[in-house]
Amino acid sequence: MNRYDLMEALNQVDEAQLEAAERFFESGKEPNMKRKSIRTVRIVLIAAVITALLGVTAYAAGIFGLRGREVAPEETFPMHFGTEWDEAFGAWKGTYALEFESPETCRPVRYRFGWLPEDLDFPCYEKDAEGWVKRWDWTPGSDDIPWAEHVEAEQKGTGLFFISDVYYTPQFVNGGALLLLNEVPEEITEETWGELSVLRFRSSAWRDWRTGETGQLDTSVNHVLLFHPEQGWILSISGTLPMEELVQIAQEVEIKQTEGLVEASHFENSYALFDAGQG
Question: What is the bridge-based pairing of β-strands 161-168 and 150-155?
Fold first, then answer.
């Protein structure tokens, strides 16, 4: 906590709260209690109110959160992957950006599924003996950080699929964003699930980030994003499975913090892509 946090807390102290607390206290005090003691009690009451205010989560106080916005066709984002794409395009474009106010460092998380649809084939899904999704091996200097966990699954016979990924807000807090590259989102639903901020939406159209050409997707893509403002992680669950199934997967996933520290210096880019299949 710094001096600005303290001043903000002081500004939220309601005089009526203090007066009510004083009346409650005075109703039980000794008749000969000195005024100096009353002043001391008032200081203690102010401290108690400030403590209560600071006990409110940063998300509830409006300090942490996320903001989504449409991206103008001419806006670009400097992303570098060390490939021929960088030489050809230099800066990338997108359709929609999620920007975060969240901790500059956070602890990594693990997740495991409590429910999945039947008849799924997993070209990319490894889990340990307890069902926690396994982590990637880390290549120093790349965005494949040691806490990254990725799942791909396709439903047999239908071709419908889902993908899940974990992101961390320290990657985005210095002016970065989580981007849709080609998908154009429809109406976005914002919800609160306990401590989580949740976004749900469907994409039925696309806009080519290189040419600006637009069109309709062959199959609509659904997205559910779970964001923990205090802990600084995002779990993206996306795919062509029905929205109700993605929501059930999200509602029954188990997520836990683990040891370690994620910070901005771990990332080469301040941007990441969350189109289904873009990663």
Answer: antiparallel
Residue 8 lies in a domain: yes
Both 235 and 111 in one domain: the answer is: yes
> Which amino acid does the sequence have at 111?
Y
Count of CB atoms situated within 10 Å of the CB of 175: 8
Report CA-CA distances (Å) from 109 to 48, 68, 253, 256, 258.
34, 24, 12, 5, 5
Residues ≥6 apart with Cβ < 8 Å to 101: 63, 64, 65, 66, 67, 173, 229
Going by C-alpha positions, the residue among 274, 80, 270, 273 that lies closest to residue 171 is 270
pLDDT in tens, 80-110: 766 666 665 567 889 999 999 888 899 999 9
Given this model, what pLDDT does residue 59 score? 44
What are the Cα distances from residue 14, in Å, to 5, 39, 55, 169, 237? Answer: 16, 17, 16, 34, 43
- Total domain count, the chain: 2
Residue reference for tokens 């982590």? 135
pLDDT score at 38? 52
Contact between residue 242 and residue 162 where contact means Cβ atoms under 8 Å apart:
no
Three-state DSSP at 192 gives strand
Phi, psi of 232, rounded to the nearest 5 degrees: 80, 25
User: Helices in the chain by DSSP H: which ranges?
Assistant: 3-11, 15-26, 35-55, 84-89, 243-251
CA–CA distance, 82 with 86 (Å, rounded to integer):
7
Please indicate, yes or no, whether residues 214 and 257 belong to a single structural domain of this protein: yes
